[in-house]
Amino acid sequence: MYHQLQFVLRNTESEPSLIRELIKIGHGHKGARFKAYRRCLPLLAFACLHGLAIFAAGIFSSKAITSSDVVMIVSKSCGYMEERTNIFNISDDAIFETVNALLVMARTGYRKSAAYSRACYAQYGGNSTACGTYLRSTLSSIMSTVPCPFDQKICEGPGIALDTGFLRSDLDLGINTRPEDRISAKKVLTCAPLAGEKYTDGWLLLPAELADIVGWPPGTMWKGYKFGDSILEGDPAPDYSMQLYENFYKNGDMPYTFMAAWAYLNNNTESNFNPIPELQFKDSDILVLGLVNRMSYRNPVRDPWFNAQNCTNRTEGQLSSPVQRKCSSTNAVSFLGCKEQYQFCTADETQCSPYTGLYGITAEPDLSLNLNPTQKVVFQLFWKMMWGVQLLYQLGFIGRENLAANEYLWDNGFQFGISAELPDNQWQMEVANWMNTTLATMQRTALAYARPPEFDLGSGISSLKHIIPPQTPEAELLCHKIKARSKAHISFSVLGFFLNLGLGLLIITINLALPKTVAFIQKRTGVGIHKRLEWIESSGLQLQRMAAEGRGVGPWEGRDKDVPRLVEYGHVFSLTGSSLKGRWSRAESYGLGARGLKEDDGEEADEVERMEMLAWRKSPRPQNVSSDDRVRLLDR
């Protein structure tokens, strides 16, 4: 059995074939199968482990060198759009060009982010081909029902909160820094319906002095809402945070129109009102959003923001509406109140900013955070992203066109003025859509920093002309550390590729050199010479040579090589007989090799074999041949 195992080990090329042959050997020793399998068991275990190791190595090596579409952004331009502190005071052409570039690019960016949100953040949008631009196709947020965050006096039902959780600058936004240099940040948006009718004096006649200022004719009716005093310079009605004029309400041609009042924590310059106590917070930015709904519906809409329960029937001969019954908005304006909160943390989240409004966290990182230069520029970029995704900016640029309720409209030009019925939670769907657009805008902002999009602003003026490049070496280095996806490029691990190549070549070299190295050592030291002899003689070609020599075919050379050869080149012989019956002889090997097989060769072969067996039994045989003598005989 030892020699059978040696033969199998010498001539097996793969683990499955070795396992199969070992099982055959164990099964073939009838009467001693237990002992046979016991001797085969270590080899079987080693073969299984070796095969599993090769399989695992193949999996890991393929992962190490698998190509990817994740690439590093390379661009000639990098930085932010040039900004102006007061976009309402355009005094010359240079300021106009700057404001023009800023606002056009802002609106374009929000529109593209909204389109990406609809394609990729929708329930089944993740498989869209348009979702392969950013490092992650989507960023997640968690929506939960919460009590109204404002005073119960102003609330009109529970609210919802959408929490992004901590988004990582490296894994979520593609800023390729060391893990310990990353910055994490989160945004929480909480909204609830407001009882706006409690804070209005109703429809009033517009005073003549006010009519001249706002440009409406005398006798115009108007309605003001007192959510707080206006702090806008020159506001003709400072006691009101919002105003609605009857002519605008009844004759407007847009299905939905927004009105807004906002108050930023620690930044009155950018705010437009001081909230009443019911809306005040010391840790949030506040946005009150009014909706003017001019649509009619077949059935009442009970959603608190799109509320339309003022239903009437068409009278005979009336052609103003194509439907017999229509329901219009219950109130002239319906309101949502929202608050926004932010927080930034270092990689281990042991150092965090306050959980508060955006301007409660300065754009320059707090010195108490002890940030290194890389962390500082990552924080500044992250803060700039959060600044750009404030809900006010999104709604100001694309709020009306990004309403999910627009999907229910009958038309956008025929002036039907009809919408399909809206669900009772439509306002929640709108807020969720705003958060999805916010997340998509964050993804776009990171990419736009490293590769600002180019846009023709008219007269051959490129938007890249108004890009402000980074001002510090660390910020400039960040330009080359933004990752994205590109179908036009592939990336792979150079280190992984060469490690796999090097290890593969090393294993091949060891496999080829090991037998010759061991043979050289055995010949020089004389240790294990009989093992070397059996190793040589148990190879398939050497066994064939010995079978040929047993039939008188020879002489041979290269008996200690991998491939033995006949001394007489071109000698023809046969190792098979005319049939499987009887015995074969040396003479027959030469005879049949020379003249070919005939029908009566089997009987002749039996007779010759019997004669040779008798002669062999009578001949003297050597006694006690040592391994060294066998090697010398083999070498001769």
Automatic annotation (TrEMBL):
<keyword id="KW-1133">Transmembrane helix</keyword>
<protein>
    <submittedName>
        <fullName>Uncharacterized protein</fullName>
    </submittedName>
</protein>
<feature type="transmembrane region" description="Helical">
    <location>
        <begin position="490"/>
        <end position="514"/>
    </location>
</feature>
<keyword id="KW-0472">Membrane</keyword>
<feature type="transmembrane region" description="Helical">
    <location>
        <begin position="40"/>
        <end position="60"/>
    </location>
</feature>
<keyword id="KW-0812">Transmembrane</keyword>
